Amino acid sequence: MKKSAFMWVVAGALTLTSCGSVPLTGRSQLNLVSDSQVLQSGLSAYTSFMQSATVSSDKVQSDQVTRVGKRIAAATEKYLTENGLAAEVKNYSWEFNLVKDDQVNAFCMPGGKIVVYEGLMKLVNSDDDLAVVLGHEVAHAVAKHSNERLSQQMLAQYGGQAMGMILQNKSYQTQAIAQKVYGLGANYAVILPFSRKHESEADYIGLALMSLAGYNPDNAVGFWQKMSANGSSKVPEFMSTHPSDSKRISDIQKNLPTIKQKFYTAAVTTTATKSATTTSTKSAKASQKKTTSKSKKK
Fold first, then answer.
1. S-S: 139 plus which of 6, 71, 205, 270, CB 3.0-4.6 Å?
2. How far is residue 16's CA from residue 32's CA, in Å, rounded to a whole number?
């Protein structure tokens, strides 16, 4: 098959690839790689990292990471199951680890393998603070951002090959300049904007997930303000994979009323109802015991 024909076949395959949608936001996304491929590579990378990392010896903080993480994971699976996405639950094998490292950071591998660094815990004053971080990381897994990131890189690569074909009869100098410009364009116009979109989307979904788990999403504003104050370097937003601190906080403040109404209020009400029901049942049983005891005495 000629190279030009091959590129048309590739383009056709990309066009015909089915699109999915992101849970909780409904955004359409293009995935050119299968879940099994991403999960396998993610597990391999995670296993390799954990073999070289030092697990934290701080039991209190490690238990906190596990406790909050599992609660958010359970709420996430419950939401997916109740909203027709039960098949997605099989993709997750949740694991939450705290590692000994002063970096103020955390990351999530596909499939729910999440790592928190001890340095970040210095900014965590409560379970609600930690839920902001873990909700954000779980959101990356739920939204399949790794799949989409790989797809975008593939598209950029195919685009580069196509440009190579177009320029093949041009001078070496022309080819070099064009490829350099294309590389910058693909990076700033495709890959980085998608990275920022993923981060903003993970903020929104993370707020929803922590709310569904019963954690207060209002803590997100104060926590990200602490993260901003802790940052030592400022990179212009158009060159960063993350939204600027001010934009992130502004977006969170804008989304909080909706998040609280749709997810947090319902979760808290449900929890309160269950608690009241449990208390009522215990009281009824206690009352019945007393009545039975008095009857026996008579």
1. 205
2. 10
Phi, psi of 55 (to 5 degrees): -65, 140
The chain-wide mean pLDDT, for the chain, equals 77
> How many helices (H) and strands (E) are present in the chain, helices listed first?
11, 5
In whole angstroms, give the CA distance from residue 169 to residue 175: 9
Annotated active-site residue 201? The verdict is no
**What is the 8-class DSSP label of residue 239?**
G
Q: Which residues contact 55 (CB under 8 A, 6 or more apart)?
A: 62, 97, 98, 99, 100
User: Looking at 77, 118, 137, 148, which residue is catalytic?
Assistant: 137
Cα–Cα distances in Å, from 215 out to 78, 126, 256, 273, 277? 16, 10, 13, 16, 21
Contact 221, 252 (CB under 8 A): yes
Element containing residue 19 per DSSP (H, E): strand 19-21
pTM of the model: 0.73
> Which residue from 157, 250, 137, 255 is spatially nearest to 199, judged by alpha carbons?
137
Q: What is the pLDDT of residues 197-250, one digit of tens each?
A: 888 999 999 999 999 999 999 999 999 999 888 874 443 333 344 567 888 999
At residue 4, what is the residue type? Answer: S
Distance of alpha carbon 133 from alpha carbon 233, whole angstroms: 20
H/E element holding 45? helix 35-52
Phi, psi torsion values for 221, nearest 5 degrees: -65, -50
